[in-house]
Amino acid sequence: MAPDINVSASHLVLIPSYNPGPRVYETVRTARAQWAPVWVVVDGSTDGTAAGLEDMAASDPRLKVVVLPENSGKGAAVLHGLDLASQQGYTHALTMDSDGQHPAELIPTFMATSTQSPKAMVLGLPVFDASAPALRVQGRKISNSWANLETLWAGIGDSLYGFRVYPIEPLRRVMRGQRWMRRFDFDPEAVVRLCWRGVRPINLPAPVKYLHADEGGVSHFNYLRDNTLLTWMHLRLMLGFVLRLPLLLLRHHEKHPQFARSRGARPASSSRRLLRQRTGATRVRRQAV
């Protein structure tokens, strides 16, 4: 059983897992060494790791393992965990991959930042080493550009890195409101839609490791399938962006009034005050008449 260094009644670690191989056991052990509770949602794995994880949980009351009967996708597994966490009174969840790519040693730092700013989401900003495939590093720049456009540069440092702390209820409402975000499209769509709802992103640097097969690394990324999924996702998000553009512009001007002033326009808050003043003056004139 891992020592209980940081035990929280509000923040938990949530690890979706699908056929990660033995590397998942070390991932869970390192996460438990940093935080409690840790929950693992096994998304229909067929590699035998579900039984091994359940054995670990049998001797560790701070480790919970939920086994889903069939594979539904990362987003679906996260949502299942969020629903259970909400029922038990948790307010925030740190998501991390089960394959050992994410830095468990930074869990306390991310959780502390979330505790200080509970209405925000804390996003990992990946720091790549030489193990990172150049094609994937360059490819994510495209997704990041789209995500920043779709939110009018609300501050998303990286749209794809899954090491994050989410406020549970806003994310559940976003996911329950539509049928997407259930597979590889979960991470980028989650941050865009949460930004649309006014959830502020906070970016913290976090190293990422790409493990080779001889190191126990397992990747389920498919370039054609998953890039097609991301392209369709961004087309949907651009449509949502256009529909929300007036609200996003208003919010952007309130956050950055200097841009409005530099263009000779009043900040939105000043415009509203002026409108109220003019409305009040009109009422006074009508009463005088």
Notable traits:
single chain, 289 residues, alpha/beta, 7-stranded mixed beta sheet, 10 helices, 7 strands, 49% helix, globular
What report would you give on this structure?
By secondary structure, the protein is α/β, with parallel strands linked by helices. It folds into 2 domains: 234 residues, Spore Coat Polysaccharide Biosynthesis Protein SpsA, Chain A (Alpha-Beta Complex), CATH 3.90.550.10; 33 residues. A 7-stranded mixed sheet has the order 3-2-1-4-6-5-7, with helices on both faces. The longest helix has 33 residues. The N and C termini lie far apart (81 Å). The C terminus is likely disordered.
Sequence-ordered SSE layout with sheet pairings:
Elements: E1 11-17, H1 23-34, E2 38-43, H2 49-58, E3 63-68, H3 74-87, E4 92-95, H4 107-116, E5 121-128, H5 134-150, E6 164-167, H6 168-176, H7 186-196, E7 201-208, H8 223-255, H9 257-262, H10 268-288
Parallel strand pairs: 1-2, 1-4, 2-3, 5-7
Antiparallel strand pairs: 4-6, 5-6
Helix pairs in contact: 3-6, 5-7, 5-8, 7-8
